[in-house]
Structure prediction request, 79 residues.
Amino acid sequence: MTDPVIAQKGPYVVTVEEGKSYFWCACGRSKDQPFCDGSHEVTDLRPIRWKADASGEKYFCGCKHTKTPPFCDGTHETL
Prediction:
C-alpha cells in the first residue's frame, strides 16, 4: 500500500457551500490541496468524497494521516 505524502503539517481552512460535493486528496500529491487533481493515479490511494450539509468553514486534513478523513484530527502534531 502506498503511504500518503504530507502536503502540510496542519489543516487547510476551506469555506464550503451547502449541497456541494468535495473530493479530498488522500494521497498528498495534488497540486490543488486539499482537493484532488488526479495525481493519485500513480498510487493505490483514492480521494474521499464529502458533501457539505451546511455552508461555513471546515478544517480539511493537510498531513493525510487523519483518523477522521477528510477532516483534521490533530494527528499532524505527532508527525
Notes: The two ends are 19 Å apart (CA to CA).
